[in-house]
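Entry 12.
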Amino acid sequence: DPNSGDGRFRSVDVVADGAGSAIDFTSLTTFADIYAGSTTNENLDSSLTAKNGGAVNSPLLQTLNGVNLVLDGTGTLPIAALKTANFGHLTLSGAGKTYAFSGLTNLDGNSVLVSGGAVAQFPALTSYTNTTAFNFQTRVLQATGAGSRLDLQNITSITNGGNYDTHLLVQALA
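Predicted 3D structure (tokens):
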């Protein structure tokens, strides 16, 4: 990820889609997109997606920054080693699928979208700060649809962002 130049409207997208498709990131510990994370539509999140039998082998991945992690219950991507996910999204779906982010202790500035009957659990998470880099930013922690659940039961504090027109939406929608 370059530290100079015009980084708008660009992303790094990693997708394993289809039975037998696999990406081997066995040594990857950090996936960061330095310009992602705003909601102005010019700062795109990079993405990491496993679906339709595809697999992303990343057992050491601990940090996501500016990344949309997309799991629909049909692919494989280990999440147990994740400790930090900032300024991106977790987009989780799949009827009856439970995503246990057991090691994740920092979710600041990230949106979490759970749908389609999936459950997302964050047992090690005790606080959430809507860290913002720009004005006019909205983050969403949301469970949508029957059976969908966002388990944030160990959170003891929530702090909103410090920039102008910053919003945090925490929602459970039928």
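Annotation: The chain has no helices and 17 strands. The mean pLDDT is 91.
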